[in-house]
């Protein structure tokens, strides 16, 4: 064996060790869940499932509580995404292209959404919601989801609008296009990747949001992650694993579809100025 | 951001029309109108709640001004041990996350191997996995009868150490949730360092360590600060993992706060706790905001 490792060289071995640790630590828990979800019997000392089956899928998909939560989660996520786009994309365009008084202060005010720890903020929001009667309402849940993604929903599109070259817009204008047509046919298509990434981010983070909903949406707004809170304790591990996969599926599908657009650079522009 | 000044307006019909405001003033009004909805949302969801919670934290049960809620935070043994526990966990987790993420980002930047490319493709995944699911995966992986315990049993008969419902479990969860994000920010910063700068330094005889200290570190320092901010905020305000796999006593502050609010209906104490959390984070938040503003200038 040792001659084999020697022929690989030190660099390769280090790379392999890092890769193995990475897979074990980051993907191990997920692989474990995937195995659990399709196992029929997996008793303690066995290192791998003793039999495979789909029984737990039937069990999970026949629980009315779970089906209801899936519908609710998607409804909330869609409303949140649409609302975020309507509110944030125009603001992003204004930050990138229009000069107006105090624009910098407005831009930096979005940093406030990240300048406070989440759970502390949710408690503060819950205290306010209690006073104005938004506790345990659809609107309250939507608002708490929107505020979570407000900053990158504004900053990522703003960065992409800025990256569109002015010369191209001006060329279209010289060719006789009106300002709206320039935006629709030139600016928007070129900045679409950033807007798509931000929207997907928003959709997914709404779908996965648990803490804020737990604070302001209980007991009537049980989204998928909240059902999962209960499932961790009450369901057998296999059923919990099946539900986990159901909850992760939209994430995987959306990421796969949009993988062309998702890059460290685009995502980082939602958190830092460049 | 200075596009407005150079637009040469052709004498079309529209711009010849007399108007009360100049074109620039109308445009800047339009900009304000586009920004205001999200700004009001921000005001209502961040600024107002913070002031409400400060106000609420200084109110006793009878509605009069009192410092009692803050006194409770630091004198109640359960509460003050939770505070110490949370700060300890935050400091240890944040340092570990930043060190590991930095090493990983440097490795990804300068490695050309096939496996490194695979890591580059896969490391986004944890950022998009719902935190409940990840926590559940960890329970099943590291629990007493979890997968790791079963695999270890193939090699040794020693009893498996306690990870879940313990400090170690929370630490692992924090690493899992925060390393990918920090790596992403740092990778993006490192990828903007041109190869030519590094090769140039090599040509004039700089060693690896010198290149690191003189070029790589200064150019990625700001992203390091941003990553640190998000990691500290994320860890100190974390809820899902501690709620599901944390110990019952001492609790992490996020869980303690939620219990005070939703279980004991102690709005004052919960608010005081939140305000205290804002206060210890305001320093980190201040440096983050200041460095961002400097950049834009």
Automatic annotation (TrEMBL), chain A:
| CDD domains (UniProt xref) | TM_PBP2
Which key words are in the record?
Answer: Cell inner membrane, Cell membrane, Membrane, Transmembrane, Transmembrane helix, Transport
Pfam entry (one): BPD_transp_1
Q: Look up the signal peptide feature and give its range.
A: none
**Keyword Ribosomal protein annotated:** no
Q: Give the UniProt subcellular location, in the record's own words.
A: Cell inner membrane; Cell membrane
List, alphabetically, the InterPro entries matched: MetI-like, MetI-like_sf
Q: How does it sit in the membrane?
A: Multi-pass membrane protein
GO cellular component, as recorded: plasma membrane
GO process annotations (BP):
transmembrane transport
Keyword S-adenosyl-L-methionine recorded = no
Which PROSITE patterns does the protein's record reference?
ABC_TM1
Q: Where do transmembrane segments lie in this chain?
A: 16-38, 70-93, 105-130, 142-161, 182-204, 235-257
Gene3D superfamilies in UniProt: MetI-like
Alphabetized SUPFAM superfamilies for the sequence: MetI-like
Domain ABC transmembrane type-1 residues, every copy: 70-258
Which family, according to the similarity comment? Belongs to the binding-protein-dependent transport system permease family.
Q: What is this protein called?
A: Polyamine ABC transporter permease
The source organism is Paenibacillus selenitireducens
């Amino acid at each position: 064996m040792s001659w084999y490792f020697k022929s690989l060289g030190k660099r390769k071995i280090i790379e392999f060790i890092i890769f193995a640790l990475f897979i074990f630590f980051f993907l191990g828990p997920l692989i474990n869940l995937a195995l659990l979800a399709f196992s029929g019997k997996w008793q303690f000392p066995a290192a791998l499932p003793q039999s495979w089956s789909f029984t737990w899928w039937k069990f999970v998909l026949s629980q009315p509580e779970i089906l209801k939560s899936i519908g609710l989660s998607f409804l909330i996520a869609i409303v949140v995404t649409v609302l975020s786009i309507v509110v944030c994309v125009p603001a992003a365009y204004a930050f990138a292209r229009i000069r107006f008084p105090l624009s910098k202060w407005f831009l930096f005010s979005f940093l406030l959404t990240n300048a406070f720890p989440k759970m502390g903020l949710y408690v503060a929001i819950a205290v306010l919601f209690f006073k104005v009667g938004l506790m345990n309402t659809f609107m309250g849940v939507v608002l708490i989801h929107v505020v979570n993604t407000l900053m990158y929903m504004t900053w990522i599109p703003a960065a992409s609008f800025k990256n569109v070259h002015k010369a191209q817009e001006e060329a279209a204008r010289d060719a006789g296009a009106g300002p709206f047509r320039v935006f629709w046919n030139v600016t928007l298509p070129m900045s679409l990747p950033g807007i798509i990434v931000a929207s997907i981010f928003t959709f997914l983070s709404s779908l996965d949001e648990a803490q804020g909903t737990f604070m302001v949406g209980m007991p009537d707004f049980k989204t998928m992650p909240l059902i999962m809170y209960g499932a961790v304790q009450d369901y057998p591990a296999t059923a919990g694993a099946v539900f986990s996969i159901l909850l992760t599926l939209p994430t995987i599908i959306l990421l796969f579809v949009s993988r062309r657009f998702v890059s460290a650079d685009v995502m980082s522009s939602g958190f830092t100025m460049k | 951001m200075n596009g407005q000044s150079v637009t040469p307006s052709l004498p079309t019909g529209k711009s010849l029309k007399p108007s009360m405001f100049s074109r620039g003033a109308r445009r800047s009004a339009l900009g304000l109108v586009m920004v205001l909805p999200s700004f009001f949302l921000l005001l209502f969801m961040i600024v107002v709640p913070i002031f409400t919670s400060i106000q609420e934290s200084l109110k006793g049960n009878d509605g009069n001004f009192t410092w009692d809620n803050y006194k409770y935070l630091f004198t109640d043994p359960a509460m003050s041990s939770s505070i110490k526990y949370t700060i300890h966990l935050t400091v240890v987790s944040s340092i570990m996350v930043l060190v590991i993420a930095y090493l990983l980002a440097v490795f990804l930047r300068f490695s050309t191997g096939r496996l490194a490319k695979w890591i580059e493709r896969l490391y986004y995944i944890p950022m998009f996995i719902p935190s409940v699911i990840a926590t559940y995966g960890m329970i099943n992986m590291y629990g007493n009868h979890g997968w790791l315990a079963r695999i270890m049993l193939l090699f040794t008969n020693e009893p498996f150490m306690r990870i879940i419902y313990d400090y170690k479990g929370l630490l692992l969860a924090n690493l899992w949730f925060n390393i990918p994000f920090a790596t992403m920010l740092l990778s993006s910063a490192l990828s903007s360092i041109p190869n030519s700068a590094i090769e140039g330094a090599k040509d004039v005889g700089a060693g690896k360590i010198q290149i690191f200290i003189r070029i790589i570190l200064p150019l990625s320092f700001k992203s390091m600060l941003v990553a640190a901010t998000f990691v500290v905020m994320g860890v100190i305000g974390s809820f899902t993992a501690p709620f599901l796999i944390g110990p019952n006593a001492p609790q992490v502050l996020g869980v303690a706060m939620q219990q005070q609010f939703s279980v004991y209906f102690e709005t004052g104490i919960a608010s005081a706790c939140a305000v205290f959390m804002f206060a210890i984070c305001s320093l980190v938040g201040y440096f983050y905001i200041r460095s961002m503003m400097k950049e834009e200038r």
